[in-house]
Amino acid sequence: MTFSKRSLLMIIIFVLSFVFSRSAFAHTTTIYEVVEVSKYQRAPRGIWLWVSSGGCSDESQFAFEIQRSQNQLTQVKVLRIKEDFCLRYMPRGQAIFFGYDDVGVAPNENFVLLNPAPNQSSANLFPVIH
pTM (2 decimals)? Predict the structure, then answer.
């Protein structure tokens, strides 16, 4: 089976247009998924979170859901709002820094992180105490 140069060019154009249109669509997709957090570390200006990732996650791909009540600690959930399509093997997740303003809590505020750890179905209830 042989192809003419024109046929090969058309096949290449078709494949490339599919790939580029798919990646353009993927980067504009908005999702709201509770992300797995394997570890956290509080810092003077914010918090480091180790999140499930394919290696291309950054702070712009996440949002925070905050619930406050008078008698309990503030509850925080980390949500992924844009997918990470990279395929790097990162068994411990990717560390990403979020300032307290980004999270929506005060630097001296105590809160509980409700995100599940990897391979768990229920919330972890990480206490994040100052």
Answer: 0.66
